Amino acid sequence: MERYVCDVCGWVYDESEGYAEAGIAAGTTWADVPADFLCPLCGVGKDQFTKE
Question: What GO annotations for molecular function exist for this entry (predicted)?
Fold first, then answer.
């Protein structure tokens, strides 16, 4: 499983953990995270994340 870091604020999306607050189950790959996902801390889109 991979981790993706927000380039703006540093928030981390960990595929093994998912993001329950947004309804994204543990084990959800970054590719399967909805295209309209926004960083929960600063609000930028998926295109502003980099694989760690």
Answer: electron transfer activity; iron ion binding
Chain CA centroid to CA 30, Å: 6
Token readout for 25 is 């189950």
Answer yes or no: is 38 a known binding residue. no
Residue whose pair of structure tokens reads 């540093």 in the numeric block:
10
Structure tokens at 8: 């703006």
pLDDT, tens digit, for every residue of 1-46? Answer: 999 999 999 999 999 999 999 999 999 999 999 999 999 999 999 9
> How many whole angstroms separate alpha carbon 33 and alpha carbon 37?
7
1: annotated binding-site residue?
Answer: no
pTM over the 0.85 mark:
yes
